[in-house]
Design brief:
This protein is α/β, with parallel strands linked by helices. It is built from nine helices and eleven strands. A hairpin with a 2-residue loop joins strand 3 and strand 4.
Length: 285
């Protein structure tokens, strides 16, 4: 089951050509005084899961600022409706309440996005949960299962539902959100670390399967970012993972959106099945 949030849309100050002619040097203010390039996403249609807050919302705003249209999927119906209302772009934003762990709901949402916008060009698999902080031998099995169901099985569901439409169009860009925890493993986060490692493997597998088409499949491996999800973790755990970052700070969501949106653009025409680092120097490979 899915439901459609009330329509309305984005606050971004645009300088230059937001529609994005190729080679344009347009920029957009994305927060904290940062000006970043506007990518050529003119009239592209994107699905952003977990798009009502955090990195997903930053990506949504960046796509809209670059001329695209977005179907935001989120299981938090109240937050989703608030986000869609705040974005205030009813012709370019669709909000769908979706639990990506439910395949039937994902398939219904993909159909609703196509019915609304006519196609799907971009899939940003951002939705995930972190779960509790506990050692592996003390970790609640139900909590482990929930983390995997959303972050891994949900990502698989979204790819399964959307990829056939991309194949039919011979065009698509898929960006999966993994984590540096998927490369290195974080102590007291076994479910999250295992899920994000699996997302990297899924990305590589799907990238190879779709390499004969004009479809790119890549993932990013961010360090901890300034999101509500991250800040909900135990303070000592949060301090430990921030201390591992050579940059000495958390990732800004706008910085993540910059790399993700480039990977989602037609300009990224060759690389596929790859993991792009966003760890602030933490990752060693």
């Amino acid at each position: 089951m899915i439901s459609v949030a009330g329509q309305s849309g984005v606050c971004c100050n645009i300088s230059g050509n937001a529609g994005g002619s190729k080679g344009a040097s347009a920029t957009t203010r994305v927060g904290k005084g940062l000006f970043m390039n506007v990518y050529d996403l003119n009239e592209r249609v994107a699905i952003v899961t977990g798009g009502a807050q955090g990195i997903g919302l930053a990506v949504t705003k960046r796509i809209l600022a670059s001329g695209g249209r977005v179907s935001i999927w989120d299981r938090d119906r109240v937050l989703l409706e608030e986000t869609v209302k705040t974005l205030a772009q009813p012709n370019r934003v669709q909000g769908l309440a979706v639990d990506i762990a439910d395949l039937a709901g994902v398939e219904d949402a993909a159909k609703a996005a196509i019915d609304r916008f006519g196609r799907i060009d971009i899939l940003i698999n951002n939705a995930a949960i972190v779960g509790p902080n506990a050692t592996t031998w003390e970790y609640p099995s139900d909590a482990f299962r929930e983390v995997v169901n959303v972050g891994l099985i949900g990502t698989f569901h979204c790819c399964r539902a959307v990829v056939p439409h991309m194949i039919a169009a011979n065009y698509g860009r898929i960006v999966n959100l993994s984590s540096v925890a998927g490369k290195e493993g974080n102590p007291r986060a076994p479910a999250y670390s295992a899920t994000k490692a699996a997302v990297i493997a899924l990305t590589k597998s799907l990238g190879k399967e779709l390499a004969a088409y004009n479809i790119g499949v890549n993932c990013v491996t961010p360090a901890v970012a300034k999101t509500a999800l991250a800040m909900s973790q135990a303070p000592d755990f949060l301090a430990m993972i921030v201390a591992k970052i050579p940059r000495g700070r958390m990732l800004e969501v706008e910085e993540a959106a910059s790399m993700i949106c480039w990977l989602a653009s037609a300009e990224n025409s060759f690389t596929t099945g790859a993991a792009f680092d966003l760890s602030g120097g933490r990752a060693t490979y």
